[in-house]
Automatic annotation (TrEMBL):
Matching Pfam families: p450
Protein name: Cytochrome P450
Family that this chain belongs to: Belongs to the cytochrome P450 family.
SUPFAM superfamilies named among the record's database cross-references: Cytochrome P450
The organism's taxonomic lineage, starting at the top: Bacteria, Bacillati, Actinomycetota, Actinomycetes, Kitasatosporales
Length: 411
């Protein structure tokens, strides 16, 4: 069981826009539970096989709380390892985690998402109108992916859409994997006080949104806890959705043979397309982290109590034991089960919302602009390697104006 090889740091270098670092493939086949060196000098593990990653995320002997100050790419100095703000339930375990999570699950059900569909369609079409008016050459990330994601999350939480630029800026800083933790803490502090004002305003004058529901509900939550929960939803929901809209569109533009489901009305085929893009792109590219609560065995290795394990979602989602030809984007795969939304008790709370926004977003985009194309070379598209979520900074696209049908002029 002992492993004396020199430990590696998390592989992050990509050789292909959509493929995880090549090193993952080698590890998955030859050393699937490998020793990993963390930036704070501690030694942990990297799991790359889907079976092991599922185990890390679902075995109650693994804790998110123990891993709350760990990152495979950035060290948090001991003096900055303060307690978590109240309501930060994603870093809690067991009953404490469930206490907060169950107050939100009812707000993200498939049924509730069905009710939201017309509003999401309206938001999406509104942004496409704006894009069309802006010209025949735009940055799709700026004009479509970010505004759609921001509008949806602001609407859901009940936060003013006028503040979207501020929210976008803070989310970029907080989700950065490289900026110093002190800088992030200052920006996060600003976001907490901004949301505290929103929470107090909603207590005085509630509306039909998540923050109002939480502050007026009979749940014993303090304003500070509601703020903590709102911060999580905002950060988790906004960035992840925007990045999947941008990167997913790029993947479709570079694989035009995969666009067929978006041309028809077969919702099941469109659902498959979204699922396959989630699997293939796995935007939570740095993986998920957990700490071992006791000595345990995983993938044939002894993980000691307190050691941190990174579950490489991107490697697990390309595991040939689970998928035929895993490195191929194939939107006809039957609803591939994947780990892009995680697994176990912390499985993404917003997954149904994300699926809905992505299905409507890709469908309406390619309906409105059937000849949408990339306006630059794929090599010049800059990727978000330095962020917790993978994606593209900008996506310059163009299209041809459709001729106005005869007789429609002047309508
Ligand atoms: C394509 C979009 C999205 C992706 C790829 C994604 C991915 C993930 C992943 C991988 C996790 C698990 C993290 C872990 O186990 O450590 C997660 C958790 C979470 N996600 Fe998402 N997410 C997306 C959209 C959303 C949206 C739209 C929301 C809400 C509005 C959301 C809210 C959350 C929350 C609150 C958690 C923590 C759940 C818990 O700890 O119980 N996500 N997400």
């Amino acid at each position: 069981m002992a492993d004396n090889r020199c430990p590696m740091t998390l592989p992050t270098e990509r050789t292909h826009l959509f493929d995880p670092p090549a090193e993952y493939k080698r590890l998955r086949e030859t050393d699937p539970m490998t020793r990993l060196s963390f930036p704070d000098g501690t030694l942990g593990w990297l799991a790359t096989r889907q079976e092991d990653v599922r185990a890390v995320l679902s075995d109650p002997r693994f804790s998110t709380y123990l891993a709350r100050h760990s990152s495979p790419v950035r060290a948090t100095p001991p003096e900055e390892r303060g307690e978590l703000p109240p309501g930060t339930f994603t870093s809690l375990d067991g009953p404490e985690h469930a206490h907060y999570r169950r107050m939100l699950t009812g707000l993200f059900t498939v049924r509730r998402m069905r009710q939201l569909t017309p509003r999401i369609e309206e938001i999406t079409k509104g942004r496409l109108d704006a894009m069309e008016q802006a010209g025949e050459n735009v940055d799709l990330v700026k004009e479509f992916a970010h505004p759609v994601a921001a509008l949806v999350i602001c609407e859901l939480l009940g936060v003013s859409y006028d503040d979207r630029e501020y929210l976008q800026e803070v989310s970029e800083v907080i989700m950065s994997a490289e900026l110093p933790t002190t800088e992030i803490a200052v920006v996060a502090g600003g976001l907490y006080s901004y949301l505290l004002d929103v929470v107090r305003a909603k207590s005085a004058q509630p509306a039909d949104d998540i923050i109002s529901g939480l502050v007026t509900g009979d749940n014993g939550l303090t304003d500070e806890e509601v703020v903590g929960m709102a911060v999580l939803l905002l950060l988790a929901g906004y960035d992840a959705t925007a990045n999947m809209l941008g990167l997913g569109t790029l993947a479709l533009l570079l694989n035009p043979d995969q666009l067929e489901p978006l041309r028809g009305d077969d919702q099941a085929a469109q659902d498959n397309l979204v699922e396959e893009l989630l699997r293939y792109l796995t935007t939570v590219h740095l993986g998920t982290i957990r700490g071992a609560k006791e000595d345990l065995e995983l993938g044939g290795k002894l993980v000691r109590k307190g050691e941190i394990v990174v579950g490489a979602l991107a490697a697990a989602n390309r595991d040939p034991r689970y998928y035929t030809d895993p490195d191929r984007l194939d939107v006809t795969r039957e609803r591939p089960s994947h780990l892009a939304f995680g697994h176990g008790p912390h499985l993404c709370l917003g997954q149904q919302l994300a699926r809905l926004v992505l299905r409507v977003g890709y469908r309406e985009l390619f309906r409105r602009f059937p000849d949408l194309r990339l306006a630059v070379s794929p090599e010049s598209v800059k990727t978000l390697d330095d962020r917790v979520m993978y994606g593209v900074y900008a996506l310059p696209v163009s299209w041809s104006k459709q001729p106005v049908p005869a007789g429609a002029a002047g309508e």
